[in-house]
Amino acid sequence: MARKPCNFPASFRPFSVATFLVFILSLNSFPQFSAGGHNYRDALRKSILFFEGQRSGRLPPDQRLRWRKDSAMHDGSSAGVDLTGGYYDAGDNIKFGFPMAFTTTLLSWSIIDFGRSMGGELPNAVAAVRWATDYLLKATARDGVIYVQVGDAFSDHKCWERPEDMDTPRTVYKVDRYNPGSDVAGETAAALAAASIVFRSRDPAYSRLLLDRAVKVFAFADKYRGAYSNGDLSSAVCPFYCDVNGY
Asked: Using one digit for the tens of pLDDT, what is the confidence trace for 109-119?
């Protein structure tokens, strides 16, 4: 079958959905904005469910989107590390660390600030955060290195294929002392720190692990300063998620 170009709109990106999630939760907190027949409960459910469709790696037994299967089970092997898991980006099969970290930060704060408004969706939201942080812990497991991307975006964007069937390169990209990335490292630290608050009472040991790693990653970001898209990674992360004034 001939391959077709991928043109998924930005609205399908996980960080856009995370932003929308916070928006509908804020509306839920103010009844006067919840009128007009809009079903914000259903919007909340679908927003969180979206992340299950973006999951990479070995899927858990309670995966609600049954049409998704295990995928990218060898991510990181070319670099001798385990980078399975995490989230795909924008309907594609790339794992971009910068937006994934931002998404995790925003999801975590949505639970911290609005968790009481989530009702039965709260456990699913917490699971969505943990799916991301489990991956971010793997990406930051080596001292002085943060793995920030898996997959070649240019090859991936030339085709439409299910992640279960993909045959595009799973190239691994990293920042380190020689190729710093204070932006992506700082956002990763923020994600881990925010998530540690989410799990503070739910799983204290996991929370401490997240916070300790956040401190370590932030120290790396502060010591080795520079934008990750200004160095060797420029051709891989741009024009997709370049650093623009730190964002």
From this structure: 999 999 998 99
The residue type of 173 is Y
Give the pLDDT band (50/70/90) at residue 243: confident
**What's the rounded Cα separation, in Å, for the pair 232 and 178?**
10
Q: How far is CA 66 from CA 49, 60, 93, in A?
A: 12, 10, 18
Spatial distance between the Cα atoms of 198 and 126, rounded to a whole number of angstroms: 8
Q: What is the DSSP string of the chain?
A: ---------GGGSHHHHHHHHHHHHHHHTSGGGS-TT--HHHHHHHHHHHHHHTB-BSPPTT-S-TT---B-TTTTGGGTS----SB--TTSS-EEHHHHHHHHHHHHHHHHHHGGG-GGGHHHHHHHHHHHHHHHHHHT-STTEEEEEES-HHHHTT----TTT--S---EEEEESSS--HHHHHHHHHHHHHHHHHTTTT-HHHHHHHHHHHHHHHHHHHHS---GGGTTTHHHHTTTS--STT-
Positive/negative CA dihedral, 133, 135, 138, 143: negative
Query: Which phi and psi angles does 147 have, rounded to 5°?
Result: -85, 120
Q: pTM to 2 decimals?
A: 0.88
